[in-house]
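### Sample
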Amino acid sequence: MAVVDTPGLDIMFLTCFGVPRQHRGEIWKFLSEQYLLQQTVPSRPPSNPTPYKELLKQLTSQQHAILIDLGRTFPTHPYFQAQLGAGQLSLFNILKAYSLLDPEVGYCQGLSFIAGVLLLHMGEEDAFNMLKFLMFDVGLRKQYRPDMIILQIQMYQLSRLLHDYHRDLHSHLEQQEIGPSLYATPWFLTLFASHFPLGFVARVFDMLFLQGSEVIFKVALSLLGSHKPLILQHDSLESIVDFIKTTLPNLGLVQMEKTINQVCEMDVSKQLQAYEVEYHVLQDELLDTPPTLNQQQRAAQLERTNQSLRQQNLDLLEELQVSHARVCNLESRVEALAQSEGQLKQQVSALEEEKTQLATTIAHLQKLLTSLGINADLEGQTLP
């Protein structure tokens, strides 16, 4: 996605040096409109043209998965904290509607963070339209497709870029058998929103709307490069991955500005294209080349992989149990709210009926008093 040709350089300046928060949603919508106007070849539109409000009336098979992730999306942010509060309900609506709009992708972990960031800067329907723009027009939906092939290519591209720009860091990570998939996958799937401060994430979105998906690579490269001295101090797989996942995201204001400025100055579009082709060539060669590792080396490599997968499975099982309990709690609350609503409706109906009966009684009493020659108001007080 090329830089949009906005009136003057004001938009580019604002995007690189900070968009005022109160105008951010409008700027994002403006940039998306400019991008669409400049496309010589329109992107493939969604196969489902159903309007947003109509999508909300339909049911989705992804409801359970979406409910699980609601409580894990910005859990400390006031707008999303309350279970089934306004923020979570709007987030649920957007994710439900998108899962119906794009059945191939449906709902994928990570989308809730992107939708959440959009919701913090614009209304619900506008946020849905911007999510649709990012997925279909900017092309983010490719990395969420079930086969995840595009995500694998992105990890390879990031590794090659790291080799180009920070060879010593790339070698250090390679020695510990640390590939980008061990730390950068959530960066791509949530656009950094799951681990980084929201102020920084908003700046990333500014650049994303201006320059397109290559911004994700540039931000990742800048973050790794600026923390290179600290990463090189760690000499084990566990400590390096832990540092990148937990310490690196705690950006100060100066570091954030440095990262964004570097992103504005970098251009990796040609390299990304070359490395995508290179990935496919290597994959074809691997299919035609016999394995070179001896049996013992392959067994050791498989054992390391299996050990890592076992630990991941244990972590996921624990998350699943917690999430299942949370969903059961949410579903119980929904059922209780539905029962409460039914009871309230019955009470309202009973009160309406009682009101009608009282009005009839009052009318009857007024008529009786009038026939006796007594004037009375509605409250039964005798008038002079």
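The radius of gyration is 29 Å. This sample (TBC1 domain member 1) is used throughout the tutorial notebook.
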